[in-house]
Structure formats: C-alpha cells, structure tokens
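Bumping with the actual sequence this time:
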Amino acid sequence: MKRYFLLAALALAACSPKPTGTSADGPAWLFLEKGPYTLETKVAFTGPATMQLVTDLSLMADKPEVVLEKQVEAGEDSVLTVALGKLKPGFYEVRLRDSIRFNIGVRPDEVKSPVDAPDDMREFWDITLSNLKQIPLEAAWEAVPEASNEVRESYRISYKSFGGAIAGGLLCIPVKPGKYPVHIQYMGYGADVYNFDPSANPERIDFLVSVRDQGIFRDSEARWIDRGLDSRENFYYRGAFADAVSAIDFIATLDKADMDHVVAYGESQGGALTVAAAALDHRIKAIAPAVPFLGDYRDYYKIVWWPVHEVMETADAQGLDREEVYKMLTYFDIKNLAQWVECPAYMAFGLQDPTCPPHTNFAIYNNLGSSEKHFWCVPTCGHAMWKEPSWPPVRDEFLARF
C-alpha cells in the first residue's frame, strides 16, 4: 500500500512541471508551486469585505464563475491575508468590495489551450511562403540623417512583400566594415515609429519592422484585425505574417549581417509577429516576445471584449458565419504557429493585462516547440510591458547569448 501511494505521489509530481519562469519584484500574486495557496496583499482599506475569486475564462459571461466567496478582513496595516485553498492552474480575478479588481495566477505552465490547427495549416503556410519567394524585394533605401552619425547610419527601408504589398522599416547599421549580429524588432498594433540611437549598441544591426499599412506605412484607418475575414487567403494577417518573414529576407541581403546571430523581439502585436516569424523562418536564433497578441481566439472572446468581439461584430455585419470565421482564424492563431518555433524563447507578460490577457499569452507559451523557454511576470503590469524597467535587462541578457 505504501508503495502504491509513493508511486501515485511520484506520478502526480511528474504531472506538475517545474516552473520555467519567475516574477519581478512586487505583490506575490503569481503562484508557481502546488497549493494550498494563501493570498497576502496590501489593500486600500481596513476592516471587513466580501471577496470573490472569478475564473478569467468567464469574465465576459452574463454570470461569471465564482470559485470562492468569503468574508475577509484587512488589518490596521491594510494587509489582507486570505486562505485560497487549492486552485486549478489558470488565472483568476480577485474582487473586493465594489471596485477593487486584480488578477492572480496559478501554475501558468499547466494552463491548457491545446493546438487546434487544421490539417492543412502547414500546406497553407508553405504555399504562402513559396508565393512570397517569387516576389523580388526591390528594396529602396532612404537616408535618415537625424538618426545617423559616425558610429551607425539609419535608413528608411521599403520593399515588396507578399501579394506585392509594401513593407519595410527603419534600419540602423554600423558604419565600419565587418559582420554584426542583428536585432529585429517587430512593432505593436498601430504603434508609433521611432529612430534608434545611432551611438547606442555600436556592435549590432537594429531593424524596426513595419508590416503593411502600419508603422512607416500607416494608413488613415487604424484597425487591421478585421480586414479580409471572408477567407484565409484574404485575411490581413496572412500578408502581415509574410511581411515578418520578408524582414528576415531583407536582413539576409546585407553584407554586414551575421545570419548566425539573428534574434527578434516585440511587444503585443510585435510579440505575435516575433513568434510567427520564428515559426515560419528558422533563421531566427532566439526570440523574446512580450505580452503577445492573437493567441487563442475562442478563449480570448471569453475574457475581454477587444479584439475578438470586434472581429465578430464585423463578421456579423458582413453576413459571415461566426463558426466559419473562427475556423479561418485557426490558421493565424499564434498558439498554433507556436508549435513550429524551434529556437529558445523568453516571454514577458503583465498579470493585469486587459488587452492580451495572461491566459492568451500562455496559450502561446505552453505550445512553443522550443526546447528552452522561460517567462518573466510583472505582477502589477497591465499591457504596457514596454514601460516596465525590469524587462529590458532580462530580455537583453537572454538575447545576448545568441
């Protein structure tokens, strides 16, 4: 009997993977080990309150799922200590009184969001990339004197990509001869363009990528998520993901680029493009996506309103069947593309993110094909990981290895 219990305990331990990440300094709202759990946190009140714990996958439901409700009390120091017991892996919203809301996470490595890629997904992307190869880049270079000096020179780059659309970005490249490692940075959804400091990082090439109609090519309509919903052939992100690969094709044309040392990173949509690029082109040697976008459309719909509710409203307006739209989106779901990533990866996420919720981040992370992967959590951060001072040193130290 003792042997049976020992074997059962060992089997249970094997089912609970060792955490592959950690948290920045801040409230202990991310639980990485097995429970039971105790929440201890500073609050903005003293005295009694009702606390509810709500599953994140029910936040958009008419009646959210409450897994725990109890009366609690904050002491004179405004510290609240609550026994949560054992919780399933996932993310939960803590609700206190009428207005206090914050998220906690439990064993994120074990969050389940299985790949639901269609059988012909690989064929679809092989055809897309084959068509891309037939498009000559015909890159055009425009000097940017205000972001150039004797150390590095900057250029505005444009070239043809999938379907003949124009993509490109801002290139900052060392002046002196030699081979240099390359940092590709993919931009967020509608993010503003900026120039690199030419005196910083003198021993590398930086390329800030603009996909079609965004970045330096941004058009007047600042929404792209619901373009071309009628088919996988026409969906906006077919071209945008191809543009992410075109950026690598362009870098490969540079005599000074050391193609054995190409890394990529980005936040939000930039994180999604980073994963997509590494999935579709293995010339990237390491990636550091932060708060990645476009992971698990169906669960996304259950957690927050934007973007999937907006997508479905557009589908309704166009007379498209929602189920067919969901099926089409699986070809572009970053959690499905993640399985093709082979290089090491380091992902950052904000536990309070209302735009790319943690569940959607881990739908991607837990499906990565990488043999080496890590995550970095900022417990109090929402979506603006680019404003968090703790992430760039972690990211840069990781990417410097490659």
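The tokens above came from a reply further down the thread. Residues 295 and 360 are 5 Å apart (CA to CA).
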